[in-house]
Amino acid sequence: MGAHSWFGGAVTSRKVAANTYDLSSPRRIHVVAAGGAGMSALATVLVQQGHQVSGSDQVQSEALQRLTALGVRTSVGHQALNVHGSDFLIASSAVNAENVELVEAERVGIAVLRRSDLLPALAEMQPFVSVSGTHGKTTTSSMLAVALIAAGADPSFLIGAEVTSLGAAAAYRSGRHFVLEADESDGSFLSGPRAAALITNIEPDHLEFWGGWEQLLDGFRRFLNETDGPRVVCSDDPAAAQLGTECGAVSYGTSAEASYRMTDLRLGSQSCSFKLRLPFASLEAGSDLGQLPQQVDVHLAVPGLHNATNAAGALALVAELGYRIEDAVEGLRSYSGVARRFERRGSAAGVQFVDDYAHLPTEVRAALAAGRSGDWGRVVAVFQPHRYSRTQALFHEFADAFTQADLLVLTEIYAAGEEPREGVNGMLLFDAVRDAHPEAQVVWCADLDQAAAYLGTELAAGDLCLSIGAGSITTLADLVLPLLQSRPDS
C-alpha cells in the first residue's frame, strides 16, 4: 500500500503494512483531534466495534467527555507518549504536520492515516449506504438512519453532526448496512463497497480539488455506476437528474418525472407534510399489490421544503432497499433535526434565535425560506462567508441568496485554514448584494463582536435572528442573548 499525503500538505505517512487497515480484529488506535465532530464520530464507531481507542485534543469538550464515557482513553493536550503502543494513528486534516503526536508517530514507525483511509475497511464489514451531494447530505443521511432503524434495519451510521433523536452522530449496530454521509469534497465519497447510493444535488463546489465542473460530474457518475445496489437521485436538481437518467437511477422530488413524487406539500414554521406517491417498482417481488400503499402521508417536526425533499429521498431509498416504508414514515415523525441545521438556540426579549450551517447560496436560500415560513415579524439574517476560495468563486451567486431576509448583517470571511487572497474579503460580498439589490437593508460588521453589539440594540420582539454559516458564527446567539436579557424590555 503506497504512501499518501494529506491535501494541503498537513501530513505525509510512511509506507503501511498491508494488514494495517484490517478492522476485523481488535486494534489499538489513537485519534488525534478527537474532539472534532468527524473524528469524534469515527472514534465512537471504532470503540463500539471493540477496538482499543485513545484520543487527544487541545481542549476539554463535551465530545471528549462522551468518548470517555464510551471507554475511549482521552487526554487534553497533545503529548508524544499518547501514541505509544498504537497500531496506527488517525488524525484530522486540520492537524499540522509539526504536531508532537504526529512527529512522534513518524519517529517510532507508527502509521498516520486520515479518516478516508479507514472508510474501505469499515465498508468491508458492513457495505455503505452512502448519501452525497453538494448540500443536504447531513440531513438526508440522518433521516435515512432514523428511517432504517424504525423499519427494523438496525444500521450503523456515521454522520457529520449529532442526530438529535438518536443522541449521537455515529454508532456501530448489528444490521447489514452502514449509513454514511459521504463527502465529495476530497473524493472520499467513492469509498466502498456501497450497497446503495443517494445524490441530493450537484453544484460547482470544491472545484479546486476536482479540477473543474466536468471532473466533478465524472466523480458523481462513478459514485452511481460503482454502486452495487439501488441508486437514488433528486429529480428536482438538473445535474443529479441528468446523471440519474444516464445511470438508470430511481428519482424523487416534486417534478412530474419523479419515481417517488411529492404532492400536497404543507409548509409551516415548525413542521411540514406531504404525500409521497410510490412506484410499482419499489414493491417487493411476489407481494400482493393490493395490500401495499400507492402513497404515504409524511409528517415532519422540522420546517422547510428542503427538509421535506430530503425526507422523500430517505424514504425512497428505504423502499428501494426492500424495507417497509410505512414503518420508516412513522419513524420520521420523531425526527427533530441535527445540530446546526435550523437549530433553535434560545430566545430573549421576544426574539427567537436559530442557527444554520448553510454556507452555499442554495443552502442559504433554503434556510431563509424555512425562516420565512414562520410567523415572525422580521427575518434578520447574519451571514459569515466561509473560505476565501468559496467567496471568490460564488460571490455573484450569493448576491441573490438573501432576498427573503428583511435585514442582512454581513461579517468578514471565516478562513477555515485558508490563506487570504488579494481582493477577496467580506466587503466583496457586501458590495455584490448592494449592487444587485440597492433597496435591500444590508449592514456590515467586521466581526462577531460588532455584529452582537449592533443586534443587541436593533433586534425587536417578534424577530427571528438567523445566524448562517459554517464557521464561528454558531456562537452568535451566545453573544447576543445576554445583551437582550439585560434590556429593560426583556
UniProtKB/TrEMBL annotation:
The UniProt keywords, alphabetically, are: ATP-binding, Cytoplasm, Ligase, Nucleotide-binding
Q: Where is the Mur ligase C-terminal domain?
A: 340-471
Please name the pathway. Answer: Cell wall biogenesis; peptidoglycan biosynthesis
Mur ligase N-terminal catalytic domain mapped to chain residues: 28-124
Q: Which positions are tagged coiled coil? A: none
Mur ligase central domain boundaries: 131-317
The family database entries (InterPro entries) matched by this protein are listed as: Mur-like_cat_sf, Mur_ligase_C, Mur_ligase_C_dom_sf, Mur_ligase_cen, Mur_ligase_N, MurCDEF_pg_biosynth, UDP-N-AcMur_Ala_ligase_MurC
GO:BP terms for this protein? Answer: peptidoglycan biosynthetic process
- What GO MF annotations does this protein's record show? ATP binding; UDP-N-acetylmuramate-L-alanine ligase activity
Example GO CC term: the record gives:
cytoplasm
Reaction catalysed by this chain?
Answer: UDP-N-acetyl-alpha-D-muramate + L-alanine + ATP = UDP-N-acetyl-alpha-D-muramoyl-L-alanine + ADP + phosphate + H(+)
Q: State the PANTHER family in the record.
A: UDP-N-ACETYLMURAMATE--L-ALANINE LIGASE, UDP-N-ACETYLMURAMATE--L-ALANINE LIGASE-RELATED
State the name under which the record lists this protein.
UDP-N-acetylmuramate--L-alanine ligase
Native source species: freshwater metagenome
